[in-house]
Amino acid sequence: MRADYERVLKQRNALLRTAYLARKTGAGDRDLSTLEVWDQHLAEHGATLLAARIELTAALAPYVAKAYEAVSASRSPAVIAYKSALEESGPIHTDGRDALAARLATAMRSARKAEIDRGVTLVGPHRDDVTLLLGDLPAKGYASHGESWSYALALRLAGYELLRADGIEPVLALDDVFAELDSGRRERLADLVGGAGQLIVTCAVEADVPPSLRGTRFAVTEGGISRVD
What is the mean pLDDT of the segment spanning 29-44? Predict the structure, then answer.
């Protein structure tokens, strides 16, 4: 899905870039008659990718909120949402890929002159973003160090829980995350992940991992690995 979209985007950008450079160097206008074909392909693949991203973000949202509350014990809820430029022309619904493709095609036609002037594709999922909020404020720029780490963990745990909800038992890997948390957040995270079927935790300082998080422990020193009893 994403590979198909990026392939079409690369070809479309190459066409726009060639035309842009030709005008800039005085080589004259280039034939852009094939741009309509790339528009159609980009709209089709873009609609599929856009719908999938919106659906995934919506599915992750409740898990992110739950995990963040559990780890941080914060009163400010974690809110994740997909932000698409297409929303400027009205709400986006994922119940019709053809409708999304039509909106992308319309947006490309509106941006055609600007795209030719700049030599790059200005419309599509590659221009979209995911917004991360704490309450009504964006996490970026407002979240403290502990809140930022709690949010990052919430995203990781949300993906893990979403896979479990689909009947998959993935490996949950936490790479030296406890060192970045205060004692309260460490204990809450340990309680939250202690029941995972497959859990791998790494740390530079053994004391960073709460004793309540039980399991087999290994020490890696000077290239050797030994079991810690």
Answer: 87
